[in-house]
Amino acid sequence: MKAAVILLAAMVASAAGTITFTDHIQDHMVLQRAPQKASVYGTLTPSSTDGDVTVTAKVSGSSSYSVTGIVDGNSWIAYLQPTDAGGNYSITVDCNGCSVGNNTISVSDVTFGDVWYCAGQSNMALSLHFTMSRNKSRDAILAGKYSNIRIYSMASNMNPNISWSTLKNATNIPMRHTDNLFFSMSATCYYFAESLTDLMGSNAPPIGLIHTAFGGSEAERWTSNATSAKCSNLTLNSGSGSLFAQRIVPFAKTTVKGFVWYQGENDMGELFGNYKRSCGYACEVPHMISEWRQIFSQEPGTTDPNAPFGLVTLASSGGEGHPDIGGMYYSQMGSYGEIPNPAMPNTFMAHAYDLADPWSNITCYKVDCCKNFTLPKCHGCEGYCTAGGETGFYMGPIHPRDKKPLGDRLAQAAFGAVYGADVPVSGPVISGCTLADGKLTLTFNKTLLGKETVVVDEYQRGRNASMMQILTNSSMFCLQTDKEAPAPGEQSCRDDGMGNPFIVNIPAGKRSIIDADETWPMVNISVSGPNSIVADVSEWGD
Predict the structure, then answer these.
(1) Whether the model pTM is above 0.90
(2) Using one digit for the tens of pLDDT, what is the confidence trace for 337-349?
(3) Contact (CB, 8 A) for 441 and 532
(4) Residues 71-103 pLDDT 10s
(5) Residues of 260-277 as b/e, b for ≥16 C-beta within 10 angstroms?
(6) Computed over its alpha carbons, how large is the radius of gyration of the chain?
(7) In terms of Cα–Cα distance, which of 448, 430, 449, 450 is closest to 440?
(8) Closest by Cα among 94, 91, 96 to 112
(9) How do 86-94 and 104-120 pair as beta strands?
């Protein structure tokens, strides 16, 4: 039975007038379930006639309740009672005392569940249209699966506006460039919810996805200028803080379960830095997380002040022409090397360093080889076409099309870290090392591995590879090199890991020395235990 809810919020305003919902309070939306309390809110246009605004919430056929809302200038908000997952509600706001304009507004087909907020830059914004698993998801939806997921997307430079919609409805709305509206949704955000639904099975609640990513954006744009000022060595400009104002603040009164963040490519040229030294990207992201949590949780009982926050490391193709993507991985974890950590509590992460597009050579796509293998440039393209050649690239391999495995990793991490399942929430994290008799043994955190064990695959470039390099000259360690040489024959290190720069001379006939193969030779590794590996380093002594 459809439960009709009529909201009557008893609000007293100094002036009353036309009342509206904020843009993302819409039909078909998902509101955060209990134990948290959700809210509906919007604006009130004052008139010359003073009056009381009265809103009452009433559930037909069962108990009724009323809530007292708050009016602050032109804004109003009403907090709902904590509501269990599911249901089908209509919420009507009646503005008693408004003398002009629309005095009654409503939304229908509203349900309660877990609301996840997804943001970042282009690899978060990348739509399902450009992913290899899109058709499998579409077919599953049309067959009745994933009916618990609903989507909302704020228009951007890569995505159209998507009003709150069920997945089946979205698949039936045609779009010129992406076939249907569902294919316009953020792939990473959606696959996270799809995989989480698969893991939770019959216990999966309704999941609402709010997506606001913006292609080509730096972290500085997603953070207020006051917060960015806590970190040195950031490049601030007129656009800094703009997306925080446009895409964070308007949602801050919305109660959410947690956040998912995929960004970093456009900060590859900035200082990676260090959280403890209050500099660079490694400082900014933890402070950004704290700021988002703070503004979303200003009202007690809404978003958890320590709400779960998921992050994605960059794919190996995400360097934007800059070196040292490994240093960026380190900075994405607040320069702790793992998360959660003291600077980033209650966080979880999915690594994407091995999820570059499996077909980085885009010739097969550009020549349209999947329709004609006899063309001269199409030799060897059969595998590409079998793997999903009909799915085109967006600006090339910098936007990998294999986003489904990424969603799987994010979902498993959240399933364990957020929902309490007994599953590993992280890849292998080094917990110690020993060097003896020419053997280097690395041990990995057994708790994070859970029931899994370490596996070593034969190294084959571009596949599931296990490779290890060792530094043979500690004076050459560099967390982040400079892209440009300071002078011919020189190589510059921007940060030696302790915040110090240095310059070295490159030997004649060599292109580099800091990151050269002889400085970082590859070694053979093998499993030495369920949570350890060993490498033969006898060639380089002890």
Answers:
(1) yes
(2) 889 999 999 999 9
(3) yes
(4) 777 788 999 999 999 999 988 887 766 656 667
(5) bbbbbbbbbebbbbbbeb
(6) 26
(7) 430
(8) 91
(9) antiparallel
